[in-house]
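ARCHIVE CARD
Drawer: 12
Card no.: 0347
Subject: one protein chain, sequence and derived structure
Cross-reference: see card 0346
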Amino acid sequence: MPLNLVPIGASHTIQKICGTEAQRHHLEALGFLPGETINVLSRFNGYYVVTVKGSKIGLSGAFAKLIIVSFS
């Protein structure tokens, strides 16, 4: 399921990164890679704060939709 649909606070595993090549490259450079654990800390006005690889990162809703996750 896309990251923008998961509940806040639960751990998830990244399964796939969708989007254009530039979008995928940008997300992968930030540490969003298949197999990594991700956690949504908060959601506000269509923006998300997540943790991945020990870092807090802010994402727009458009980028959150490109990250496909499963429950850990």
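Annotation on reverse: Helices lie at 21-29, 61-64. The two ends are 13 Å apart (CA to CA).
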